Amino acid sequence: KKSNGLKIRTFYHQQNINYYLDTKDSNGNIYTVLYDTVSAGFNYGKEYSQIRLRVFNGMSWLSTKPIKIYSLHTIDAPRIMDIQCIGNTVYLSGSLDSSENDLGSGILKYSEQSWQRVASTIRQRHPDYFEVNRLHVFGRDLFISGNFDSIPGARVNGLLLLDKTEWKSIS
Asked: What is the Cα–Cα distance from 80 to 66, expressed in whole angstroms?
């Protein structure tokens, strides 16, 4: 999008999903998701993907530190389903029910040169069908939607608002 040399390769996932996910920050840097590894053994509870963000700063590609995301309750490797940027923070959401270094489930963020936990853990009563499939940005607010039904201390209906450092239920 910024130059004739920029090519975003599609990623073929074992579930027949092609990925063309990208977003850009307030400085015009473009972020894409790069899958280093996708386990394909269909081993129940042991599937993972290792991902990185690739950043195009207008001249060259840079890559973040890789992070493993897990799918502990299915035979499918986890996938990233959406990517959005608010300010200089990049949010990723998907079918991950846990992540390396206990960074959370359903959603992760990359900010200040590192992967970080977004807020308290998002859960699903039937974890074999857990995902945060969409990130919705309205101004500086982030809403998430998907197949989840609880956060610690509250039942939710698959829609949450991130209020600085905690999830708020939308009713």
From this structure: 14
**Sequence-ordered strand ranges (E) for 15-165:** 18-19, 22-24, 30-38, 47-56, 61-63, 67-71, 80-86, 89-94, 98-99, 107-111, 114-116, 131-138, 141-147, 150-151, 154-155, 159-163
Tokens at 12, concatenated: 């073929």
Helices (H) and strands (E) in the chain, counts: 0, 18
Q: Structure pTM?
A: 0.85
Q: What is the largest CA-CA distance in the chain?
A: 50
Residue 159 burial by Cβ neighbours in a 10 Å radius (0-12, 13-18, 19+):
middle
Taking only the tens place, the pLDDT of each residue in 113-162 is: 899 989 888 888 887 788 999 999 988 889 999 999 988 888 888 899 99
Whether residue 159 contacts residue 143, with contact meaning beta carbons closer than 8 Å, is answered with yes
Phi, psi of 100 (to 5 degrees): -55, 145
